[in-house]
UniProtKB/TrEMBL annotation, chain B:
This protein's UniProt keywords: DNA-binding, Nucleus, Transcription, Transcription regulation
GO molecular function list: DNA-binding transcription factor activity; sequence-specific DNA binding
Region feature (Disordered): 88-138, 222-256
Biological source species: Trifolium subterraneum (Subterranean clover)
Localization: Nucleus
Name of the protein: WRKY domain-containing protein
UniProt domain WRKY: residue ranges: 163-229
Coiled-coil regions, chain positions: none
Biased composition (Basic and acidic residues): 88-106
Pfam family, one: WRKY
Length: 41, 320
């Protein structure tokens, strides 16, 4: 049970980190998109 | 006086019998109570693992949603960027202002950061279904960039270290439209655009080399759609090019090559400098070519021929 708990915690940590990265990337993409759009408009 | 009939019942009907309470409560509440009691009875490890699983599910779902949003956003970005590139390609004259150049730099750099780096990495890990689409769009954008940056050549000019100006005399006429300092190099980078022909889109970046401050690096982008000014000048005026720098015509207009030219010597062609140029760059037979071209253009000029013939014949007559 301890092992499965550890695995779960590890997985949760990994997914959370990935999530954070995704949010950052999305923010960058949005920023770039808006910049590009403002240039066109 | 009988007050018994008008008395208010103040009893609260409180019942401390738990069995009775369960009977009065709705069935689902009772079940929940039993469930919660059972949960309390379970070990804290099980409880925490349940919470972990729940959290994991939530974060995974959020992750999936974010990936979808990112994919969509990237697609939109690529579409918009391609449209902008098409527009810029169709209207090259209108994008000559420094602000737009800066903007296009920003766009390309941000696109490089975004497409080349993180998005690909996460897609590889996370959403395999969307990765192929994004790869295709990324490939498209990369191909587009290579198409645009195909005609890039870099020329190294040797300059005196005391000379801090970023002016490189390569024979063409340039209009400076911007200057900025980059992180990797403390000396400023100057941007020039060819001003000889209005439709010429060739651009030039000039910056002092980090490794050797006496060397100035000029990066040319694009291909001149007009002849070299020296050729034009030679056809229009014969005497104009006497002190023109012969090296200027050696600068390649489109070929992606590297040329080293020593500018520390005098600009007018003398023996020592021409020798040095020959050593630095084997393709420096250009002065000869230039002379031949000038001769050809001069002989084609009927007025010049007549004037020359008159001058020679006059001199001969005068001697006689």
């Amino acid at each position: 049970k301890d092992e499965s708990m550890d695995e779960l915690e590890e997985e949760l940590r990994r997914v959370t980190a990935e999530n954070k990265k995704l949010v950052e990337m999305l923010s960058v993409v949005c920023e770039n998109y808006n910049t590009l759009r403002s240039h066109l408009v | 006086m009988d007050y018994s009939s008008s008395w208010i019942n103040t009893s609260l009907n409180l019942n401390i019998n738990p069995h009775m309470v369960h009977q009065q409560l709705p069935k689902n509440v009772v079940e929940n109570n039993f469930f919660s009691l059972e949960m309390k009875k379970s070990s804290p490890k099980e409880e925490s693992s349940g919470a972990l699983v729940e959290e994991l599910k939530r974060v995974s779902a959020e992750n999936k949603k974010l990936t979808g949003m990112l994919t969509e956003m990237c697609e939109n970005y690529n579409t918009l960027r391609n449209n902008l590139m098409d527009y810029m390609r169709k209207n090259p004259d209108k994008e000559s202002s420094p602000s737009k150049k800066r903007k296009s730099d920003e766009i390309s750099s941000s696109n490089n950061n975004l497409m080349g780096g993180e998005v690909g990495g996460v897609n590889g890990n996370n959403s395999e279904s969307s990765s192929s689409d994004e790869d295709q769009s990324c490939k498209k954008s990369m191909e587009l960039e290579t198409c645009i940056k195909a005609k890039v050549s870099r020329v190294y000019y040797k300059q005196e270290s005391s000379d801090s100006s970023l002016i490189v005399k390569d024979g063409y006429q340039w209009r400076k439209y911007g200057q900025k300092v980059t992180r990797d190099n403390p000396s400023p980078r100057a941007y020039f655009k060819c001003s000889f022909a209005p439709s010429c889109t060739v651009k030039k970046k000039v910056q002092r080399s980090v490794e050797d401050p006496s060397v100035v690096v000029a990066t040319y982008e694009g291909e001149h759609n007009h002849p070299h000014p020296s050729q034009v000048d030679s056809t229009s005026s014969a005497t104009n090019n006497r002190c023109r720098n012969p090296i200027s015509s050696a600068v390649p207009s489109s070929a992606p090559s590297t040329v080293t030219i020593d500018w520390t010597k005098s600009k007018c062609s003398n023996e020592s400098s021409s020798k040095k140029m020959m050593i630095n760059h084997p393709k420096m037979e250009v002065p000869q070519i230039l002379v031949e071209q000038m001769a050809t253009s001069l002989t084609k000029d009927l007025n010049f021929r007549a004037a020359l013939a008159a001058a020679i014949s006059g001199k001969m007559l005068h001697q006689n």
